[in-house]
Amino acid sequence: MRTEDDQAVELTRRIGAGGQGEVWEAGGGRIAVKLLHSRDQRAAERLATQLRTLRLLDLGDLPVARPLALLRPPNLGYTMVMLADMVALRHLFAPAGRTALVPWYTETGGLRRRLRLLGRTASALAGLHGRGLCYGDPSPVNVMVSEPLDYEQVYLIDVDNVAVTSEVRGSAYATRGYAAPEVLAGRLGVSSLSDAFSFAVMAFELLTVVHPFVGDKVYDGEPELEDKAFAGDLPWIEHSTDASNRSRFGLARDVVLTSGLRTLAARAFEAGVADPTARPTVAEWRTKLYEAADLTLACPDCHGTYLGSRATCPWCGVAPPPALFAQVLTQVGLEAAGKPMFAESRQALLVQRQVVTLVSARTAAAAADESEQPIVDLWYDQNDLLTVTNRWDRPVWLVGVSGGPRMAIAVGHDATIPLLNRRSGWELHFGPAHEPHRVLRFNRLVRRDNR
Ligand SMILES: [Zn+2]
After folding, report:
1. What is the pLDDT of residue 423?
2. Threshold 0.90, pTM exceeds
3. Distance from C-alpha of 29 to C-alpha of 66, rounded to nearest angstrom
4. Ligand 1 centroid vs 304 CA: distance in angstroms?
5. CATH code given to domain 321-450
6. Which of 216, 344, 351, 355 is the most buried (most CB within 10 A)?
7. Which CATH class is domain 85-209+250-293?
8. Phi-psi region of 406 (alpha: psi -120 to 50; beta: other; left: phi over 0)
């Protein structure tokens, strides 16, 4: 096949298929091709208009594929920029065949990587919403993620549904199992609220390895029951009052979801089924997902990652590694006597011994950071020393609580403090004393390895 500007396109690998068509890798992986099923004149005109509009939109540095060229008839579709070494998120959704669930979950990146990939996806969607756009069809086929486990890039492809308005287009434009009930039924068009529903389904399914509406009743029942479930006519599997569609499958919900994430899921899948405005926004998901990732530990034995509030590794039962608990506070001002006043928060992060912990601008400066660039690195070593490396563009301060020393760490420098044998703890201040700023308080030493 060829593009309108007469470039040859050779399809090499099918990335995925959705309601409207298929996405293929082409040209050695630097280009992706969306092939639409429909080839009628109206669809062709709609696509051409859509791509012209997309080229005019300022998408900044959002990780969203930019369209390149339309395909020549008789094919209907377009080419778009693709990144190397990416796979569709659906590869992380379920193990193949009889593969054991827990080892597979760990080998494909475990809980922490899933939380961060979802955080980045939510961030990309929030970036579109912030520009007054909606993505239209979030699904595990349209979200591409880094294939190598030590990378956490995400990239949204299939941009021909990106829209400003939310015209009703019919269910052909939505991916079964992920589309919001009102879009599936053709009652409403796509919107940031329908994006939020689709995202909630993806997030819950990726983390727990079970679809939020495919309970045992649906799994064991007639195929029509699945249609009912996807339309929102059956309770979701963790419904707070109606237990008629519980699931025996997937990972224990409280093992992979913080209470904050469970609350978001309940809002999305209970009140949010019928009332789109009751759903949590993708920005709320982004915050809770990143905050959950900050609370994970890596098991020294099975290498699985898990929420550090657990007494033992939920995957293998081994005791948690030593870690520091750092509470996130905001210094809101100074009292008359010069004593700092703090606003507390429920946010925190775990600093595992001998694992580099990155603190992003989201934590250090309350920024809606889309890239999660590190502001400081924390390194907690075997001698109970904590080293703080400043990667920011301004100084940070280590302060001994209740009258302890105060040392500035200049840009590009580091400082090391002893954590043991001190009655009072340390704080890391991301701003000078006279200005409001974020603070990390290392006030609890988690040393469960000695028990
Ligand atoms: Zn383990």
Report:
1. 61
2. yes
3. 15
4. 5
5. 2.60.200
6. 351
7. mainly alpha
8. beta
